[in-house]
Amino acid sequence: MKKALTVLLAVLLILSMSTVAFAAAPGDSENIDVTGKYNSTTTEGTVYSVDITWENMTFTYNETTEKIWNAADHSYTVVTTGEWDKTTANITVTNHSNATVTATVNYSAVEDTGITGTLNNTEKTLAAGVEGKPQEADALVATLTISGTPTDAVTNTGVKIGSITITLS
Amino acid sequence: MEQFNDEKKREGKSKWLILLLLLITFGAVCITIWALFFREPDVILSPDYIPPETEEHAQTLPNDSGDKMQSEDGGGSVSLTYSNQVAIDLSKEQAYLLFANPGKSNQDMVLQIVIQDTVIVQSGAILPGHQVLTLDLLDGKASMLVPGGYEGKFVILYYNPDSGEKAIVNTEIPIQITVTE
Asked: Which ipTM score applies to this complex?
């Protein structure tokens, strides 16, 4: 009896000492890294200098509701119209480095707001600055365009409807 | 009589062995339950408002004119000066880098260093006209690294200096990180 209990406890001990692992369930995807190689010989690290400006990113949807009296059946017909105060805003990335910089602009929308944001001109390799000509520095101008009708999630005090990430590589 | 004593001794030993095994099993089960259900996730959240403390390692940027860039009302302008090479000294638990928020910016900044989706460094507020050459690793992050090379990124968050609110725009910069003991 004791021997059996000892064996049982030993088995329990071995099982409980196992590492916690989270196995992939059937159907889960598996990531396989794809590696690219690029050899570069650099004598000293480059110091980059990049300017980023963005226009006012507050977009206001103005809704007007009109009630039209219908004399024939004594009822109102409700007509609602709405429009954005503006629909576009620019993001400008300017390279003042003495090396090229690739700028990528990405818009990430918050879900369930009913508002769509699209960016044009999202990527450009910006040329290195030319000596003595800072005003001619290469730049990317991306335009965010907003469309759609806001849901109730969007209040009159304003809520975040998305964010913009600029990647410099 | 001697045989009886031996048997008793063996019985006593077995009891202790069983008790020891029981204790170890109980401990292992407790650790497993803690690891599965109670261990706190290792996540650093980006602040939605500028941290009240300015970065302790921030220095005034030499030869900075402080002339502000043009910016539309409600918009923002920032200038970034940086190197994409970062060194980390594990013994000092510090990162050595070059990152500046020149005086022509009109936004405060917070800089994060991220490796494989884990934030290992998060600065305090870096005001326009300041640079950082050293930043402290977050508590416990040095033990996650080993000497060698890592690919990581700077994540730069911008904050309105008047309201302290985080801007809708942020920036990511791929960096190479060299870790030494």
From this structure: 0.78
Evaluate if pTM is beyond 0.90. Answer: no
**To the nearest whole number, what is the mean pLDDT of chain B?**
91
Mutate to test the interface with B, among A6, A7, A52, A161 (most CBs of B within 10 A): A52
Considering only alpha carbons, which residue of chain A is nearest residue B13?
A: A2
Q: Between chains, do B28 and A164 touch, taking CB under 8 Å as contact?
A: no
Specify the pLDDT at position A22. Answer: 45
Which residue is associated with the tokens 């995807």? A29
Say whether pLDDT at B20 is over 50: yes
Q: Name chain B contacts of A5, Cβ cutoff 8 Å.
A: 18
Q: What is the spatial distance between Cα B70 and Cα B78, in angstroms, rounded to a whole number? A: 10
Residues B101, A115: Cα–Cα separation, whole Å: 33
What CATH number does domain B59-180 carry, 3.40.50.670, 3.40.50.450, 3.30.450.20, 2.60.40.2550?
2.60.40.2550
- On whether any CB of chain B is under 8 Å from the CB of A49, the answer is yes
